[in-house]
Amino acid sequence: MLNHLSKLVSNRYIGTTICSKRCYTTFKYNKLNDKDIEEFKSILNNEETLLIRDKDDLVSFNSDWMKKYKGNSQLLLKPRNTEQVSSILRYCNERKLALVPQGGNTGLVGGSVPYDDEIILSMSLMNKINDFDPVTGVVTCEAGVILQQLEDYLEPLGYTVPFDLGAKGSCQLGGNISTNAGGIRLLRYGSLHGNVLGLEAVLANGTVLNLNSTLRKDNTGYDLKQLFIGSEGTLGVITKVSLITPPKPTSVNVALLACDSFSSVKKLLIQAKTKLGDILSAFEFMDRGCIDLVLRHQPLQEPFSEKPKFYILLETSGFNETHDQEKLNEFLEYIMEQGLTVDGTVATDSKNQSTIWKFRETITESLGKEGAVYKYDLSLPIDQFYELVEVMRLRLGSKANVVGFGHVGDANLHLNISTPNQKYSKEMINLIEPFVYEYTSKHNGSISAEHGIGLMKKDHLHYSKTSSSIQLMKLLKNSMDPNHILNPNKVLPF
Ligand code: FAD
Ligand code: MLT
Ligand code: ZN
């Protein structure tokens, strides 16, 4: 059961453009003037490099990772500390100047770029790791720390970050928390709602809210930090974070398993959970369309002699190599005996493991090379998980390529529809939406499992939230940011 897969090289994503200005806020904002610029310079201690005003320099910050959403900001500010963030927000609130907090700008729902000409508040210089406690495993850092930077800091200390995503080289902790990012370790370590112990946030009026507890247990009333986890920069700017970090597993195995039916995938998941228990650290799903896609764009080789319909990337992580290997072997023998997998490969060394991971982690980038990509990130009951992919294939016929992948262990489907045409088309969107959202709502799923709502789905929120929930969300927004200066036109329809 041991194969060796080829080496690979990373490629750059080539994107396309769409300007999605369908819905308008009723809030009125002032236009930036010279006096504002002088005020921002003074707040930033007259460090000229902390203000970016050049049109060309602003291009990449005005456009999202997929090159799908474009803003028209004339100013980017790079505060160095919480006090500067607070002064900027206080001033913007008084002057009614809107702004969009920006982390690594890897978001996939148009939340991190201006809708119009909002000021971009870049958190990239607030990137200090302040403290790590080896007894509790709690790390405290600034919000602009890049996920990979934290992983590299923790590794020699024998700890790891409890979440991981393909965008780890660019995304920031503040962005991760603001989107309540999921990723490939959620199955093992749970969501950020559990792993973030505390945070510091600056409210729209400049008030610094210190919620930066490092306690695991604290039941003193409402857990206010939870409001900021997943609020996508609409309720405050996260400036500091305290996070639980688990010990880094010392024994890791990665397997790529092929199945010929989705019913086998479901049975495999049950067996992986029961037979591997606490060493199961990832259970990721890809259909054949994803493998074909990745093989078209990455220097990887066909993994198996046959081409079955479904693929599972399974990872175990533990601390006892012999024990973990034995458990994995027992599991593999069982699933082969039961015919749950039709082929497979296991990698115990890091080079081959990373090759297997490339099949999963380069899907997003490979999709970007196909043309325009319509991305849907859904939570669905497991029986509808793949059904929707098949339904969409029937619905779209030869007009588009439909693939399904995702965190099947968390019932999170990434439904991706691509067309060779580089331009996003309204006709294609109308063929997909609201159909996909209605289907998801009908089956009590969620229209955003992990990427958030951003600009893309704000008018579709009602498919996953009741009107009384949306009313309460609006009440919170109005009381915390009455002038709507924070990330206008995102998350909530006003
Ligand atoms: P940005 O994109 O800059 O911002 C995202 C949102 O957060 C915006 O609304 C922004 O205003 C707000 N924000 C950013 N920083 C702050 C702050 N300090 N305070 C307040 N608001 C802030 N997502 C997943 O959940 N799981 C995945 O597996 C995953 N994989 C990905 C793989 C690739 C290749 C790519 C490109 C993206 C992936 N994503 C994934 C989406 C994205 O990476 C995540 O949403 C990530 O958490 C965004 O972090 P960021 O720093 O880039 O935030
Ligand atoms: C992933 O799981 O790879 C990400 O969420 C990115 C994507 O959906 O494209
Ligand atoms: Zn994902």
From TrEMBL:
Q: Pfam families from the xrefs?
A: FAD-oxidase_C, FAD_binding_4
Select a single GO molecular function from the record's annotations and give it. Answer: FAD binding
**What is this protein called in UniProt?**
Putative actin interacting protein
Task: Quote the SUPFAM superfamilies the UniProt record gives.
Answer: FAD-binding/transporter-associated domain-like, FAD-linked oxidases, C-terminal domain
- What family classification does the UniProt entry report for this protein? Belongs to the FAD-binding oxidoreductase/transferase type 4 family.
> Source species, please?
Tieghemostelium lacteum (Slime mold)
Q: Which cofactor does it need?
A: FAD
GO cellular component terms, semicolon-separated: mitochondrion
Keywords linked to the UniProt accession? FAD, Flavoprotein, Oxidoreductase
